[in-house]
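Note to self: the last two entries modelled the partners one at a time, which told us nothing about the interface. This time every component goes in together.
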Amino acid sequence: MKNQLSIACLVLLSAILPGIQTIHAQSHEDAIRAIYDEALVNGQSYEMLEYLSLEIGNRLSGSPEAAAAVEWTRQKMIKLGFDTVFLQPVMVPHWVRGQKETARLVNSASRGSLDLNVLALGNSVGTGPEGVSAEIVEVMNFDELEQLGRENVEGKIVFFNRPMDPRHIHTMQAYGGAVDQRGAGASRAAGLGAKAVIVRSMASNLDDIPHTGSLRYDPDQPQIPAVAVSTNDAELLHRVLESDGKARVYIETHCEMLPDVLSYNVIGEIRGAKNPDEYIVVSGHLDSWDVGHGSHDDGAGCVQAIEALRILRDIRYAPNYSVRAVMFMNEENGLRGGREYARVADEKGEKHVAALESDSGGFTPRGFSMTGSDDQVEKLRSWEKYLGEYGLRDLGSQGGGADIGPLRQSGTALFGLRPDSQRYFNYHHTEEDTFDKVDKRELELGAAAMASLIYLIDQLGI
Amino acid sequence: MKNQLSIACLVLLSAILPGIQTIHAQSHEDAIRAIYDEALVNGQSYEMLEYLSLEIGNRLSGSPEAAAAVEWTRQKMIKLGFDTVFLQPVMVPHWVRGQKETARLVNSASRGSLDLNVLALGNSVGTGPEGVSAEIVEVMNFDELEQLGRENVEGKIVFFNRPMDPRHIHTMQAYGGAVDQRGAGASRAAGLGAKAVIVRSMASNLDDIPHTGSLRYDPDQPQIPAVAVSTNDAELLHRVLESDGKARVYIETHCEMLPDVLSYNVIGEIRGAKNPDEYIVVSGHLDSWDVGHGSHDDGAGCVQAIEALRILRDIRYAPNYSVRAVMFMNEENGLRGGREYARVADEKGEKHVAALESDSGGFTPRGFSMTGSDDQVEKLRSWEKYLGEYGLRDLGSQGGGADIGPLRQSGTALFGLRPDSQRYFNYHHTEEDTFDKVDKRELELGAAAMASLIYLIDQLGI
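The predicted structure of the combined assembly is written out below.
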């Protein structure tokens, strides 16, 4: 009820505030001010995210919900009146979790038996109903695993327990320093004969919520089951091993990879006035993990991309380049959408000047990362004179976005929205990534930041 | 349970990370890095805030909880081993809410009768059990009120309904543009014969939660009761007036101002090595409103101030100046603590080089505001070379903190921590300002930012 009400129209406000000015070749400062006013007074991103989160819910590639999200997004962009709205077909993996996974510390000397909070990792094979039961062996990294060698690993469950380093100010760096355990841990352990792996959740905080996320199996190794365990339970297992010297865990997962499914990238376009055959992309990814609402990851990015286009249209800005809002499919466990978009662009000879993705949550924006030439980075940094007063001062660190990455090979300048990163890994890939974790103003400021960058690239080139 | 667990010691982490380096006349960059490492790996601010929020709870001046907070803070700083810990007596107002207030739209043509979500404004007189019932007259500002004149206001309830302007990027500015209605509305309306006032809550969002806060009665006007109404109900009243042409409201409040009570500022000090008789203050205010936990306002600022001192001590930094953590009493409805501190400092001839307050919530810090000479502002801005990589790039805008304001008359340079402001006015002065709204890392980063600024002032002067 509260959320329903809080996104009611600001009837009163619209009545008493002066009308949002439309842009008639005023200064860049005026244009950006108009973008922000439109986002903050008439914003539609929050209402869109509410629908995507609460009506459709999470939407893993290949799921019925992903199909619903594709159709809803298509209809939404048609309703918003963009010049062209179309679907780009792409075959995507179809992994399903199946019956809820369980894990249990069994007959430990110090704690007896108790349930652990786990989630199967995406793309993982399941244990099936018979489960896997074995002693666990804890390692902090692949070097320690190799040192243990086959004699200490074979037949065991390897427990990867290196935390995200809290000393990084930007949590994305801490994530980058730990996520190899999740992505490659299963195959590395399988190479030494392990029966399964347990990976400490990629989380900034200590709680009971496990974080899923994708693994990639090495084709040369056996495929073994893998689960993420909550950070609290990871700490618990560590203490049990310390006090008891050993611990046995039972894992049961029912996930499996089904045949590929036809899905789509969803694309809305405003045609450019001067260079209609050159493109600027503003994007997010429509798929999410199969827990929570996928509100921060990446419902936020999707509605911000649509909203950026809507803002430019509603302040009557006619772009020089064609601007596309692209909702990519299958970022989470395959990147098929991003690859297909770049392939088709290449095939059709569509020149992409720049691409921007929002895929770090709907938090207060603090700047943009980018991948481009030194001159391009310098140019982005010079725009602090326009963007700084909106809190966008973190400009030009290395980055972009996973889905737009494949466009780099044809020279496209890549940009990533950099929101405040502190809370992202409390929610990322969990049942806690829900609509109520997104603040309306923070989300709107992100959409305005994206529209402003698109405007500057369109006006000043990159 | 979850919160209990999430503040458990990072046992594992301490084991695997390299030890935090202590400072031995390394570079300023190294010192600040050591401050952040200490805050993020061994931080105690979150655990302190948990106690203040959940064990003591809200703590309005003069309440038993405020007394408990004084004693807990004193003991906490003694336990932390600061050189000196002492209480500074100050008489404070003692306003009590009494029996829960109620308000009701009565017999409206379009909606019938329904309850409104209200909170009496702090310092307000009560209606008593007989209540006040009258037609409401809506105004957006004092000009409109004056234009209505006594003939349209006398015997009515004035409804101040100007929203916080969402176009401000920093919500503190939107607050500043609306809060005159809360502070002075009652006396302005009383001057024209109104029986009571209803003020739209000072909030960035639309929801059902009323926001309290203090009013100041003009000694030349009758004191009339005043309540804040939730933003959703403010919108509702506006629509009822629009459709029905009139609306009658019943208000019943039981608040009253009791005689002043003896309370205290709580002060912990590390003695300076070179200039022990000159002081740098790092501060927050210990009192809060009597709803919620007062976690963001201003439990966060208190624990960050204590933590800043603890960090400097635990990295073995010996300051040149004496550094004081000051927990002021009675910021919310009187500022008696801040005034008394400045009065005593002046009386004792204690020179205060600089004072820093955190009183804008425990959100990710983005910089520092300041009140000082142009040279001092320039100096602060030049420290972006040390602070920028920690996200502290918003340096030198006008500001400081209410409690430290009285020190300005003796030339003290004033600083205010500037956290991200987007969510602050969702919670400010409401039952929603609770511990779970504070993120551990965001809080810790604020403490580290404060310790870093104190360090720079201590090393480089201001």
